[in-house]
Amino acid sequence: MRRVLAFLFPGQGSLQPAMGAPWVDTPSWRVVDQLSSVLGRDLGKLLIDADGATLRATRNAQAATFALSLMVLDRLREGGLEPAAVAGHSLGEYTALVAVGTLSVEDGMRLVGERGEAMQAASEANPGTMAAVLGLEPDAVTGACADAGPGAWLANDNAPGQVVIAGTIDGVAAAEVKAKERGASRVLPLAVGGAFHTPLMAPAQQRLDNALSMAPFGDPGVCIVTNVDATAHDRADWAALLSAQLCSPVRWRETLGTLAGLGVDQFVEVGPGDALTGMVKRTVAGASRHAAATPESVDSIVRG
Fold it and tell me: Based on the structure, what is the number of domains in the chain?
């Protein structure tokens, strides 16, 4: 029976040092050169030489993750794979919009560059952090954040038993205590540069909105399921959805459920890491899932 394929695009946090190195001598490296020219920054240096601390900086993490994902996408397409639907986690939603033709590669890179700079500045103005809460469902996590007082919010509902909180340093620490009191098995800090998808990102809103207002959006070639509403769209007010995404929780568990409801039973994670592949395993029973981050892993997927 023919499988229905979706591409999933990761957000920041999955990129590790030297993940671009296996790609340097491949034809797909041209994508990095193209995006470096658009952004006016050497993205190849980030993908090959940058250390972990450098890659945790939001302006670097977002641009480099976007570039690596598009490089992987290029090789998947050279191998003849095309999805029936797409979705992207946080930053990955911008990559997904490029993948389906709603944004050009150049306009996508410019938006990601502006978003990264705006969120970096917001993180410096409102320092914060994020942590994964394991073993609790969203209502219980929301309750733990409320119990902790101001400064912590549910940021991502990723998969059954895996919810992410974000907020101020003190707020997240207090919410961790309350989550464990409610039965969380573990609370794990995330190596990110700010409290994303919370009100602490509000200082980035105007700069992002200005960039979104100037971006030309088209209709996608296939449907995209978006973070803020977990709904499949073949046309939409993309600027409004991306604007709302900045300070709103990522509804990823529901996004995967929507894709499954469309008949998707094969998922390929396009870009660094395998976090989204793990979320598929926890959320969509019986689905085929693959992480594509290196030329070898892409070629294995293409061979089927």
Answer: 2
